[in-house]
Amino acid sequence: MSRFLELALEPSAWQRVRSWPLHRTVATVFGTGMATLVVGVYVASVLKVLPHDPDAMDLGAVNALPSAAHLLGTDFVGRDLLSRIMVGTQAFFLPGLLSVSVSLLFGSLLGVLAGFWPARFDTVVGLLLQLLESLPKLVLILLVVALFRADIYLILLVVGITNIPAAAELLRARIAVLRRKSYIEAAIALGLPPSRVILKHVLWLHGRGLVLIQATIGMGEAILIETSLSYLGFGVQEPTPSWGNMVALGKDYFFRGELWLSTVPAGAILLTVLGFHLLGDALLERLEASGA
Amino acid sequence: MSSAPGREGVGEALLEVRDLRTFFYRRGRFGVVRPDDYVAAVDGVSFSVPEGESLGIVGESGCGKTTLGRTVLRVIPATSGSVRYRGEEILGLGGAALRAKRRDMQMIFQDLDAALNPKMRVGDLLAEALTLHKKLSSPEVRRHSEELLGLVKLKPAKLSAFPPELSGGEKRRVSIARVLAVEPRLIVADEPLSALDVSIAAQVANLMRDLQESLRLTYLFISHDLRMVELIAHRVMVMYLGRVVEMAPARLLADGAAHPYSRLLWAAVDPYTGLRMAQAPASGRWEISEGDRPKAGCRFRDRCPVYHAKGEPAICSDAETEPKLTEVSPGHLVACHFPQGRTETTAPA
Amino acid sequence: MAEATPARPRPARREGEGAVLFVRDLRTYFYLPTRGRFLRAVDGVRLAVKEGETLVLVGESGSGKSVTVLSVMGLVTAAPGVVSGRIWYRPPGHEDPVNLLEGLERFARFTPGPPVGVEKDNRRWLKWHEAGMRERRGRDFAMIFQNPRNALHPYFTVGQQVSEVIRRRSPELSAGEAVAEARAWLAKVHLDAPAKRLGDYPHNLSGGMCQRVMIAMALAARPAVLIADEPTTGLDATIQSRVLDLMEEMKATLKTTTIVITHDMGVARRLADRVAVMYAGRVVEEGPAPDVLNGRYEIKHPYTHGLLYAIPSAGDIREKRRLGTIEGDVPDLSRLPAGCQFADRCGMKPPGREHLCDAEEPGLDAPVPGHRVRCWRHLRHPSEGGAAP
User: Fold this and answer.
1) Nearest Cα to Cα of residue A213 among A128, A158, A286
2) Residue C282 forms beta bridges with which residues?
């Protein structure tokens, strides 16, 4: 039985949030929380605000479980796991941003071109996008590693390029629909310069939701790629911490019954990627609900 | 001879259109255009509109009236012909020059929802239009916005509303206000009353007439609602399949329409007495699609009751003698070989 | 207590006597969570249609006319949806009516308040209601929608869609017989070259043609009640006229009980036996067509009066007179006032008794048999003794 009651006053923001379905609340809270946490942790680690020196070895407390001194325990040479986890964000944060920026910037550009002037650009852009889409990500990454070096920035740049079609396609489709709606036409007929119409009316007002969602997915993907590469030994090398190489290091101890060393970074990866994805989901739902 | 047909000499010609053609070509790959594959939405239309006048443009769907309005305002590109605003050719203009001209020539779009960006508040929409050509301070923008809303009889509170929150009539009024914000001289109104309820349409119709008087606006009033057109317009132009078939003062068209098509249109629409289609075309077909357009001669003959009544005279089907707009009485032009005479009044006052 | 109190509910037999469809006190609400209020789309509607009669529901946007018939058809799924009321339907040849909303009280509880409260298990209600309505739709009730091109299935040909209706109605027919009958129906609705049309898809046809196909489909089902929602809106004037011609012809030959929804008085004039005018989710005037649409000024509702005068007559047009309007806008259906819903726009309040209009909403009563009005101008309030105003 659902209960509906008419209220005398408009529901406050808090009441509106309370009326959300459970999954939406969970997704939004968790997603936003995770994203904020990651950003905060990254900034802290850059400013070197850490509980311990991530490289300081304490051979007296090796493979220790969480305690007051070491909130997440220590690794096999006694380094504080929490601090290493925090520094580990540096491995993917900026490269991830780079990847996302590249895919969104060029994706938007191509999407706008193909969406606004389909007569001229649709075929050309379409071909270009198909080309990019058919590039196998994994092979490309390994190719880059082989030809150049295991530079995570380079790798994620390449990943960003392969992600261009996703953003471009979404935007192109959106714009194609919007173009038929005469408020774009009306804006031009009013005398607004096309640049303003594109930037403000289309991209900002209508595209930002899509762009944000692409950004969250892109970030999640960047984390997975970076950590996978480090796990395999191609990415960040010891002693610099990366969640991936931490898992790799800990795997020998895993089978010896000391689960903690691998579980902590693995858990971090899981929670962070999940958080970004849930955030994207919540944004998507919000976007659809508002009749985007 | 030097002036386009229909010029009455009341005020200067604000708008002069000559031989306008808008063809829609189907594009192949890579945007290549095939020269034979096109739809002639507007196929040689000429008219002129003096300042302060309302020219009504009527016809069924597919006659090209909407395309005509959009072409005149450069919303879509013309294929050939000339459009002069205050004597200046505007079809060739581009960029900043065109945007400057747009200030004078505005359009009220048919679709209520699509003319207003649903993500922008009414106040922002108006502010954007107000500051397009003038520099205004924030309080001035606010004041002008409220004035504009007052002009269209909306309360200032509506400034903070989003379009989806507005009713049909309110949306229509906001789009009128937005168009007025740039202070145009010519307004092309594309079916401004169509999507509105009867009582709201009446309000908007009154509003448009009042605005025309107080601001000395010139209208191109495109509609399929013949009663409203007759009420609001000074002259009416009837279009069929991209061409003008008749042009006359509004009052003449009710009971003095000469072209058989105009008479068909008028006969179909009296809600007071619910008159039936007085003259059913012999072919029994209700509508014609673009593909059925006859290749030569009068385009209307397949549906023309007079053509059928006269035993399908050759003059109507001959390519050489395609009917041209000719004056049958001062200010009244018809494109027909057998223009009809006056009828008795069909409905009581 | 009298022993002779009959077991069956009295009101249905007394009020809706002889009616094929009798809607009583229907309420359909939609909840707006962001505002914490109900959108009262249908707020106590009473309608009756007799066999063979054509009832036209006239109203502007927001009047509730579409939601009313959607509620009758069981097509309202948003929450809470139908919250109270009875829809008595008497199938042809039967004596006793059935309540289509049977069992609603089990799933919904409505408190008029203030504040208005609804408790409803919508999911279960829909499942329950659907079981009953599924059979009736397309058989007892057939509906024609606005925007004909959108209402037809884009992937099936016209012939397939009409034949499907025929075969559902008469499963004993063979495929060939069904197609033959489909062709006959297409000819009946004056479609050109009906045999060729059978193979056409909706996108091949114009709006007017699609509308005729829909009419053919609806009539081929030989329904007990035909419901047409804005059948002429969106079509060109000449086509509208033709569609109305067709509907008049069908009315004369088939004599189907029909409900037509429109905002166009011209449509009402052409087709209606009876007219019901709706405003703000309720019926404000209801009676024989000639009375409601023209004369009987003595019992006209001010809104109907306003609607009629908003349309220019030939004389108005010739003289280029200003149009009569109803000032103001339709009310916010989530914030309806206490008294008469039309009070803020009414220019014809009864002199000396205006206080009634803001204080209390009048009921839909009949000062003259057969013609009901919801207006204090024509009705007497219980507090007032003596003769009718």
Assistant:
1) A286
2) C279
**Is residue B274 less than 8 Å (CB to CB) from chain C?**
yes
ipTM of the shown complex: 0.73
Q: Name the minimum distance, in Å, from the CA of B192 to any CA of chain A.
A: 14
Q: Which of A1, A3, A19 sits opposite C33 (nearest CB)?
A: A19
Sheet holding B235-240, edge to edge: B105-108, B186-190, B218-223, B54-58, B235-240, B243-249, B332-334, B326-329
Task: Kindly determine whether residue B109 and residue A120, on different chains, have CB atoms separated by under 8 Å.
Answer: no
Contact call for residues C120 and C108 (beta carbons, < 8 A): yes
Chain C residues whose CB is inside 8 A of the B198 CB are 60, 263-265, 307, 310-311
For residue C362, which of C307, C303, C292, C291 has the smallest C-alpha distance? C303
Instruction: Give the pLDDT confidence score for residue C258 in this predicted structure.
Output: 93
How far A214 CA lies from chain C's nearest CA (Å)?
28
For chain C, the average pLDDT equals 85
CA dist., res. C330 & res. C328, Å (int): 7
Tell me the shortest Cα–Cα distance from A235 to chain C, in angstroms: 49
Query: What residues in B contact C313, CB-CB < 8 Å?
Result: 272, 347, 349
Q: Higher model confidence: residue A292 or residue B141? A: B141
Instruction: Note whether A181 and B109 are within 8 A (CB).
Output: no
Per-residue pLDDT of chain A (292 residues; tens, 9 = 90+): 777 777 766 667 777 777 677 777 888 888 889 889 999 999 998 888 888 887 888 777 777 788 877 888 888 888 888 888 899 898 889 989 999 999 999 988 888 888 878 777 888 888 988 988 888 888 888 888 888 877 788 888 888 888 899 888 888 888 877 777 667 778 888 888 877 777 777 777 777 788 888 889 899 988 998 898 888 888 777 778 889 988 988 888 888 877 888 888 999 999 999 999 998 888 887 777 665 4
Contact A186 B29 (CB under 8 A): no
Please name the residue that has the structure tokens 């208005």. Answer: C116
Angstrom distance (rounded) from CA B267 to CA A123: 49
Mutate to test the interface with C, among B272, B283, B290 (most CBs of C within 10 A): B272
Tell me the three-class secondary structure of B45-106, residue by residue.
Answer: EEEEEECCCEEEEECCCCCCHHHHHHHHCCCCCCCEEEEEECCEECCCCCHHHHHHHHCCEE
Tokens 């072919």 locate to: B283
What's the confidence (pLDDT) of residue B340? 79
Q: How far apart are CA A87 and CA B22, in angstroms?
A: 65
Give the pLDDT confidence score for residue C166 in this predicted structure. Answer: 93
Measure B81 CA to nearest chain C CA, in Å: 29
Q: Report chain A residues whose CB lies below 8 A from the CB of C34.
A: 11, 16
A22-46 and A260-289 helices, crossing angle to 10°: 120
Instruction: Kindly determine whether residue A6 and residue C122, on different chains, have CB atoms separated by under 8 Å.
Output: no
